[in-house]
């Protein structure tokens, strides 16, 4: 049973599922770019629209992280080693931790609704689970 749970293809499918489910969240971020209700309030127009720059930057960062994780998961066995596993974990933590890490300190950093919170969980849990399920393939303990 463990052999099936730690199968690379199951992990790849979980990661892809999480990324697909996350498109709703990323789509919301894209929708904030140019939205007049999503600007900062200072008098300077540059300061106001600068928030749009951050949405734009976040979208490209998200796609970069997803591409890097997929490259790691689909790389040939010679590239599967502890370092690449740790890189994948760090990429995932950097991608998903902002959903929750600020919330205990500032309520303003929480998801804007329960629906958004559920989307964040749906997009984060499958890839993080996959990362730990395939750990053995990166640490040379693949077994039989």
In short:
This protein is mainly α. The protein has helices at residues 2-5, 8-32, 45-74, 82-96, 114-133, 135-138. The protein has one domain.
Q: Could you list some keywords that capture this structure?
A:
single chain, 144 residues, mainly alpha
Mean pLDDT figure: 88
Put simply, the count of helices is 6
Number of domains: 1
Helix content: 55-70%
Number of strands: 0
**Low-confidence regions:** none
How far do the termini sit from each other? 12 Å
SSE order, one letter for each helix or strand = HHHHHH
Alpha carbon gyration radius: 18 Å
Q: Tell me about the biggest sheet?
A: none
Principal-axis shape: elongated
Strand % is: under 5%
Secondary structure class reads mainly alpha
Describe this structure in words.
The structure is a single chain. With 144 residues, the chain is mainly α. The protein has one domain. 68% of the residues lie in helices and 0% in strands. The chain is built from six helices and no strands. Helix 2 (8-32) packs antiparallel against helix 3, helix 2 (8-32) packs antiparallel against helix 5 (114-133) and helix 4 runs antiparallel to helix 5 (114-133). It is elongated and about 60 Å long. The chain starts with a helix and ends in a 6-residue tail after the last helix. The model has no long low-confidence stretch (mean pLDDT 88).
Write the layout of secondary structure elements.
Blueprint: H1 2-5, H2 8-32, H3 45-74, H4 82-96, H5 114-133, H6 135-138
């Amino acid at each position: 049973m463990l052999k099936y749970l730690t199968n690379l293809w199951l992990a790849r499918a979980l990661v892809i599922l999480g990324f697909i489910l996350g498109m709703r969240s990323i789509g919301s971020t894209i929708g904030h770019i140019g939205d007049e209700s999503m600007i900062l309030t200072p008098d300077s127009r540059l300061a106001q629209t600068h928030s749009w720059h951050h949405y734009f930057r976040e979208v490209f960062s998200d796609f970069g992280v997803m591409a890097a994780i997929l490259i790691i998961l689909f790389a040939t066995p010679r590239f599967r080693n502890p370092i690449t596993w740790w890189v994948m974990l760090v990429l995932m933590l950097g991608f998903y931790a902002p959903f929750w890490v600020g919330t205990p300190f500032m309520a303003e950093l929480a998801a804007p609704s329960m629906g958004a919170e559920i989307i964040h969980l749906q997009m984060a849990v499958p890839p993080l689970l996959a990362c730990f399920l395939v750990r053995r393939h990166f640490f040379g303990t693949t077994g039989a």
